[in-house]
Specification:
The structure holds two protein chains of two kinds. By secondary structure, chain A is mainly alpha-helical. Chain A has seven helices and no strands. Chain B is mostly helical. In chain B, strands 1-2 form a two-stranded antiparallel ribbon. In chain B, a hairpin with a 5-residue loop joins strand 1 and strand 2. The longest helix of chain B is centred in the middle third of the chain and has 23 residues. The chains are: A mainly alpha, B mainly alpha. Chains A and B meet through helix 1, helix 2 and helix 3 of A and helix 2, helix 3, helix 4, helix 5 and helix 6 of B.
Chain lengths: 142, 215
């Protein structure tokens, strides 16, 4: 709960508000009805708020996907230029990056497929379209 | 600023910056639509209470300028936090997203809406054709001193207490205004059953829903 240290009137407001809403278990429908009695268009407010949160989720997923792709591209380049310690380690890292947050069957499928991929084929995975197609083939195996 | 900008989507985050830009992103994404509905309603309710509290400083009987209301204030706060126009929510500093959004609502209201409302000329009447007559007297006056603020806080407390005739209602309200927010603590202080305190709190809440400071 925000605290206003300087203005006693604001402090009084915050204390009263916190005291009156202590439980936080009031029925949502009653809360909505109380706001509607004050002529507040609650449904529009909820819809707009949900839309903002949905857009935020989409942006975050996109940002994480971008990070993953960049790391993947770096891992592929490091492998191809011989800066990875071993082919095995490189495949593991690439499989982790491709599988994203999954550590289960998708990861296993990606790893299996990578074992059969040559160095030249691996380089082609830095292309977004080829990468997407590769992942789709892996997902089909899951 | 003519009201808030229409709610806009979140700013595009640059590559590799998702978690850094929004440390609380994971927790926000984990919220269900039901959680979000409850949060939005809670935030709107807070905004509505804030507007009622400050009604005495608003012209036009407490209505906000430019058609704004508690709902638009709540949505604006969410838009600014998610869209990067405000410091993003950091759960390590403020564990509650709702509490953080409330602080943003309050900041927008006290630093933008109230000053804007004071700059608008007050309506002092209507002319023969029913058009508003603007009050041309300057709206800005020096802010109250600390002593004035204390005195006004006391006046508000007395005004609130005067809304209730039953002594035990007044005692519960007094406890809430004097730092005791939990029903259990108030019950212990007043030696009342906790369920009675909850009942009285609900009564006080319903009464305050229709009260505006200055009434």
């Amino acid at each position: 709960m925000p605290r206003e240290q300087n203005d006693p009137r604001d402090a009084l407001f915050e204390r009263l508000y916190e005291a009156l809403h202590e439980d936080g278990v009031e029925d949502l429908a009653e809360q909505v009805a109380a706001l509607q009695r004050q002529d507040i268009d609650v449904e529009t407010t909820i819809a707009e708020g949900l839309q903002l949160f949905a857009a935020f989720r989409g942006q975050q997923k996109l940002a994480r996907a971008r990070v993953r792709v960049e790391r993947l591209q770096r891992a592929v380049q490091e492998f191809l230029h011989g800066t990875s310690d071993s082919m095995v380690a490189a495949r593991q890292e690439i499989a982790q990056l491709l599988a994203g947050e999954s550590r289960g069957r998708l990861y296993a499928a990606v790893h299996r497929k990578l074992e059969a991929v040559s160095a030249e084929d691996l380089q082609s995975l830095s292309d977004d379209a080829a990468l997407a197609a590769f992942l789709e083939r892996c997902a089909d195996e899951v | 600023m003519d009201g808030f900008a229409a709610p806009s989507g979140p700013a595009v985050t640059g590559p590799g910056t998702a978690d850094l830009a929004h440390p609380g992103a994971g927790q926000i994404e984990a919220l269900s639509d039901a959680d979000l509905r409850a949060l939005i309603v809670d935030l709107t309710r807070y905004a509505a209470a804030l507007i009622r509290w400050y009604a005495g400083r608003l012209p036009r009987g407490g209505a906000l300028p430019f058609g704004e209301d508690a709902g638009s204030l709540a949505v604006e706060a969410i838009a600014r936090v998610l869209g990067g126009r405000r410091r993003p929510w950091d759960p390590s500093k403020e564990p509650s997203l709702l509490a953080y959004l409330k602080s943003v609502v309050k900041s927008i209201f006290t630093r933008e809406v109230l000053p804007r409302a004071k700059r608008d000329p007050e309506v002092s009447g209507v002319d023969a054709e029913g058009n508003d007559i603007a009050d041309e007297t300057p709206a800005s006056t020096p802010g109250p001193s600390a002593v004035d603020a204390e005195a006004e806080a006391e006046r508000v407390k007395n005004a609130l207490l005067a809304l209730f005739d039953v002594e035990e209602d007044q005692l519960v309200l007094l406890c809430m205004m004097e730092e005791q927010t939990k029903a259990a603590d108030i019950a212990a202080t007043l030696e009342m059953p906790v369920r009675d305190v909850y009942r009285i709190k609900q009564k006080i809440k319903r009464r305050l829903e229709t009260w505006r400071r200055g009434d």
